[in-house]
Fold:
Amino acid sequence: MLPATSSYVPYYRVSTARQGQSGLGLEAQRAAVAAFVADPAQLLGEFVEIESGKRNQRPQLLAAIDAARAAGATLLIAKLDRLSRNAGFIFALRDSGVAFVCCDMPDANTLTVGLFAVIAQHEREMISKRTIDALTAKKARGAVLGTPANMTPAAIAKSLNIRQENARINQQNQQAARLAGLLHAQGHKLQQIALELNEGGYRTRRGKLFFPMSVQRLLQRHGIK
Structure:
């Protein structure tokens, strides 16, 4: 159920100063907000944060919350993952007394928001732990970590981009599997689960929409029956 409101305070977040200057990511968020709100007059300014998703120091978000509270407006976010991957932060926002809604999940309730936040945080922590454990085991076998030929700035940057992309894809796939498993346990059909995943912005490992067969493969791949 959408909050009963006649005005919104948009909040946008980009991860780097370069994105903030170029509009990369920001324009897509503004487009989502414009499509969500029928009348531009309902938008009360905007607040733009340039910050890493792993950090919770968000002065612009706090300012947006204060502005929404003062105006009796609803805080409007383009995508849920633009808030934070920290569950405690999501819950603190939920309990702030300010109504908020995400364009990509307009019907989400506090339980749904909390569920997504917990899954996102858990997956981020597990990816970090698996990486550390793998490096520790490799070092214990006597392997020398790092290759001099691969330590040029260009090689390091390329490797970092690849690791970040693989981690992102793996994290999203793990999150999709967990959500699909929860919905499956609640008795949802494969078609219903596919619809929920697609509406939540999830995609298959090849970047495609989910269909009943791909949901079934996802459940089987993660050992969910």
About this structure: Strands lie at 8-14, 47-50, 74-77, 100-102.
